[in-house]
Amino acid sequence: MRYYFNRQLVCSVLSMLVIYSVTAQQQYEWRTETHNGYTYKYVTNDPTHTRIYTLKNGLTVMLSENHKEPRIVYRMAVRAGSNNDPKDHTGLAHYLEHLLFKGTDQYGTLNWVKEKPYIDTIYGLYEKYNTTTDSFARRNIYKEIDRISGIAAHYAISGEYSKLMENIGSQKTNAHTSVEETVFEEDIPSNQSDKFLMVQAERFRNPVFRLFHTELEAVYEEKNRALDNDARKIQEIKHALVFPTHNYGQQTTIGTVEHLKNPSLVAIRNFYQQYYVPNNMGLALVGDFNADSMIRKVEKYFSYMQSKPVAAYQPVPEQALNVPVEKTVFNNTEVGVQIAYRTPAANTREALVLSVVSKVLYNSKAGMIDINLNKQQKVQNAAGGMVQFKDYGVFSLSASPKQGQTLEEVRDTLLHQLQLLKSGYFDDALISAIYANNKLSFYTAIEGSTSRAVGMVNAFIKNRMEKWDWEIAELDAMKTITKKEITTIANQYLGNGYVVLYLRKGEDKNIVKVQKPPITPVETNADKQSLFLKNIMSMPVKPIAAQWLDFSKDFQKSKAGISDVYYVQNKEDGRFRLHYRFEMGARSNNLLPIAAEYLQYLGTDQLTNEQISKTFYNLACTFSLNVIPEGCAVNLSGLEENFEKAVDLLENLIANCQPDERVLAGLKARYMKQRAAAKSNKSNIMQGMAAFAKYGSNNPFNSVLSNDDIQEIHSVELINILQTIFQYKHEIIFYGAKPLEQFTGFITAKHSLPVSFVSYPPQKKYNPVSQTANQVLFTNFDMVQTELNWVINEGPYDGSKEAIIKIFNNYFGAGGTSLVFQTIRDSKALAYSTSAMYQIPGKKEDFFSFGAYAGCQSDKMEETISTMNELLTKMPVNEKGFEQAKQKRKSDIETERAVGVDIIFAYLNARAKGSNMDTRKQEYQSIDALTMKNMVEFHKENLSGKPYTLCVLCDEKKVNREELGKFGNIQILSLKELFGY
């Protein structure tokens, strides 16, 4: 499950949702209608057509139809998060989120009557454990908890909720807890709504907190992973200083180590009964359904819930910050400065104005920080933004220093930009440009069921559903904001009271990990089913027929000069997407990625880079040159109404970009600093280790320019790459409103093409190593956790194997019902995160490979490795799990709908694998014939007994080399070997 220190929802998705292009005459008014006996409210001119119902028991139901694909996005939101945690049991809301996946007295159990006495005993033992201070007595109590839990587990069915969701065909089973919310998430086929709502209603009827001590260990692991996450740790510290009284800063979502070690099931049950009541919950459904029918179903299943008064969190108002509060934070990866201001509550004009202020300062394209700092390379990088909670918001600025720059200088540089804004020294056009870009964001948000659902939840949590008319009108309100109002509000709220964090590299001596308690592996009963599950599975549903793409009809092909054009017309909204696609990437020219970044800082003989950046932003259009190892693309997207102007600007920039030695010198310095910083990032290190495991010492990850090579780069080289890029063969992809003939005529006239294409430079090839014996690659890194990654190289790509591989992945190692997850996390509580997947290449010339992962505590490393190795050697057989994996994949295919430009990319992906048809069709037709015997044979042929390379990243002080050597010959890798510099 996920937890958040704050919930900044999809770029403030609510704001995205409410941004709607309307005329000034249009009104947003509340209306009430009654259909088929159900009364709902709605707002006129709401582009989401959201209906807001309130059931008799107080449950808020938010429905929005979206018929683009046969799926429904679900969110159940509860106004209860870490704000509501008892002071002596922080982390409780997050605990509860995890436990609501464990089932009820109807599912998740083989025999509730026999299981219940043991659950009751465990409740009592934890209460005793919670109040006992003597360490010897606590150990004995925990031994008894472990023993009784083992007995209770014989009656429990681990992961049955996830199995129910897989049977239904859900794709995104998850949940998150934040400061003022807990939200449960699913994405289901539209024909499964009755089954689904029945399960969800049952989930909240009488939850049973079974398998608690193993799930508690998973939360311990989550806490330890958070201790290795510098960004989360820094945010906790920042919020603690911004909110010295409010629980936003005084209680972390995951809780303190001390409270984690002393849980109370009684307190968790009390929390559930207090806050999980219908008048404190909001159910959002967006997708392919009829709202009149759906509300009847919701009431049918959820009307049993009974309302009761809810004591909401009532914070003591924070005292104003009048002077700067400074703190130094030591960590592994982050070096820089963060400045934070406390801002007003949601639902206020001030909050809306400050959201615009944040974009005037930084919008990643043409804000003051973008133009004055990032484009001029006055710091390594800088950013800003707003996080809006219900009671307050946080306005933040951040930057990291370039070489030789002090943190104090970085701080002053950021504050200077803010002072310029407060004094009115910014372009008035920025305000209207922000409006245009928000209009573009609307088009993206409105088409997606997920973004609509997230927006509804955000409004519900912040008590804004009753102000939905304000939400719908927010863009119009934004349009009325003036420069004078911006400077007035900025001066009022962004004054001398703020928090400054100085982030420096160094050992954080405050880290204390949650220690591993002794846990005996529990029975998961993975092959068992409750009667409830059997009944759900037997319920008939109307099938959804799979739809196959026909590449001869679903998009159009044409020519623009000598380039092939692939085209789909956009009849849905006012956006366009244009791509110039090359089969030439970094492996063909290792200067290409640097040239791509250089382009973002260049002007032409007529326009400065600042003018270009501002013009693109004013047009609500974005360009980029994206480079991957085997390809690149020049991309342009934005508002259709500005398409022609944007193309003119892009073509002019690439054809006439001018060298700038000052920019290149700054870029080299920044690039060198980035390379050094990459060695402090454990994710980057793991990528390097995986590449070393797959390809050996000469691999795609470390075959990079040396530091000396970078210093020798000249502008003329990079400019030549940019100005000649269109001389190489490329395909043109377009999704927009222009008819095909009109588009090809325009692009032929505007796009610079040669008479014939120049041949691509030769591409550097890498072949997987031949693994003949088990090997361990070890790299030392100062961290709390241990990261483990297994790599097995397999044979060349064969499209006929895709069906069995995807079923195998579902069954063996992908998701909460897989063998790997059930064994390593649910049964043995060894890791919070673990998975194992057979990896399918994207091109027919490439090879299959297998990768497995586990993140665990260092003292669990040996047992985790042994457990994964056992699964790789002998795969447990679970017929029901296998059938479920098949059904899940079939359901996924049946409800997939490629639309718009995705049709073209589906064609290009199929072509890369040597096919001229929708590859899903062959896969789908192969699924029914697959048997458990096929799975066993696949595992035996491809994994069992195969030599592997195991990558181990952890603190060397926590490793017994001798013990690690049991798993293969150890090779210690330095960061220089991994990164190539």
Explain this structure:
The protein is α+β, with helices and mostly antiparallel strands and 981 residues long. It contains 38 helices and 26 strands. Strands 1-7-8-6-9-5-4 form a seven-stranded mixed sheet, sandwiched between helices. Strands 15-16-20-17-19-18 form a six-stranded mixed sheet, with helices on both faces. A hairpin with a 4-residue loop joins strand 7 and strand 8 (182-189). The longest helix has 20 residues, at 112-131. It is globular, with a radius of gyration of 29 Å. Mean pLDDT is 91; it is low at 3-25.
Fraction of residues in β-strands: 15-25%
Q: Can you give the helix content as a percent range?
A: 40-55%
Number of strands: 26
Low-confidence stretches: 3-25
**CATH H level, superfamily name of one domain:** Metalloenzyme, LuxS/M16 peptidase-like
Query: What is the arithmetic mean of pLDDT?
Result: 91
Form type:
globular
Structural class label: alpha+beta
Question: What would the CATH topology of one domain be?
Answer: Cytochrome Bc1 Complex, Chain A, domain 1
User: What would you say the CATH architecture of one domain is?
Assistant: 2-Layer Sandwich
Total of DSSP H or I helical runs spanning 4+ residues = 38
CATH class of one domain: Alpha Beta
Strand order of the largest sheet: 1-7-8-6-9-5-4
Distance N terminus to C terminus?
Answer: 37 Å
Radius of gyration: 29 Å
